[in-house]
Amino acid sequence: MFTQEAVLSFEARQPDVLRSASSFTRLDESTRVKVIELAREEANTGKTLNQAALQVSEQIGRGHETVRQILRKHDQESDDPIFEESGPLTSTQRRFAYRAWRRAIEPGDIAARLGKPRPAVQRVTADERAGVLRGLLPVIRDGLDTAPDEIGTETKYAREGIGLPGPTGLAELLALSRAVTVMPPAEEKARAKIYVALRARAASAIVELVAHGVHAPDVDRIETDLRWAARIKAELVRSQLPNILRTIESRLGHEAEAVGGSKLRAMMGSLMKATCTAIDRHHPSTGGRLAAPVLLSCDRAMRDMMLRLSIKPMSQAQPGRARRVIGSGERIADFTQRICAWQPSIEPDIRLRRGLDAISEDHAELLRLRFGLAPTAAGHPLTLAELSHRLGSRPLHVARSERAAIRNAIASTRQARA
To answer: Lowest-confidence range among 77-91, 188-202, 336-350?
Structure first.
């Protein structure tokens, strides 16, 4: 029991609390239905019952505990619970869910296969994606300054002229290497700074990720930044192709084609890797042009390759021998898809790009926007939230369309090879 003096004192100090309590009303049926609908939307983003209750309570202006009890009562009595709990996923199930998600399989199908609720599968998938990013942190940080220059990613060099594919034929790569013009100094420096800034932003965000229950959009932002960085780096590598070829021919003492397709493919791959390392460790704020570190790195790599392949330099091609030509049958991988150590883990299936021409234009444009594949109006990869805003649709619907588009694109490449 409270004394009369205590009650009067409380009334004088807390008039707003008393007014709020006097205006309390029970939730009507329409509000309860709205709570259930909003909770399902939150659950589809991977939130737990408690997290969803907090979010919904803020949206409808009611107490967190009130909403939480409504959701608990609903799940206990409903044949279609929102947050059904059936125990945590095992490590094997977690890996299975992640691999299935990477293949664009619907979360509901994954949940049904595992006998687990969809929200639990989505939470686990987000955690597994975060774990992959943490494992990539050393290679993302490799060569980064402790405090890289801030540079706006809204500059034209962050958007224009990126997302282009690389050649898939050795002859085409050689032709491109002889045709590429020197990148202007201002563009090269700007692109190099953007590449550093995107990696630094991703690295900082990875460190901030919570150990469990990560927010899927936070993971998506990091993955998108890393894809964006890869698109920028691809253009820096492309600009150095003449230096790669020049190093090869300088060391050989004759045209690159003379060594034959298999050896030349190995040389180009080794020097491409050396170029990527030089770019990763280049400091655009204090360093000069990229050409200097790239040429040094390529020269070391070429010396090693000549020793490994037992090739001796010649001052010129041997007289009386016909000039060798690299045929169209000498296939190579698109270099833009393998220039960053993180690409195998966060990029879509390498077959996706080949299938874009065989699917509907709506699906193809969605994938180009999502992954920053030229030609695209955005010019760089978009997060799911950014893509949803651009398309004027809900993230849940866009994510479903993205998965369907990925499956269709990959299926079309399988059919083309059959």
So the answer is: 77-91
* 105, part of any domain: no
List the end-to-end C-alpha distance of the chain, in Å, as a whole number: 83
Query: Is the residue at 40 inside a domain?
Result: yes
Q: Is residue 88 part of a domain?
A: no
Residues 291 and 360 occupy one common structural domain: no
Domain of 123?
115-313+325-346
Domain count, the chain: 3
User: What residues contact residue 275 under an 8 Å CB cut-off, 6+ apart?
Assistant: 237, 240, 243, 244, 294, 297, 298
Q: Which residue has the higher pLDDT, 386 or 20?
A: 386
Taking CA atoms, 114 is separated from 103, 106, 266, in Å, by 16, 13, 44
**End residue of a domain, out of 52, 77, 102:** 77
For residue 37, what are its two tokens?
Answer: 């609908």
pTM equals 0.80
Is residue 243 very low, low, confident or very high in pLDDT (cuts 50, 70, 90)? very high
CA distances from 98 to 26, 93, 104, 302 (A): 42, 9, 10, 40
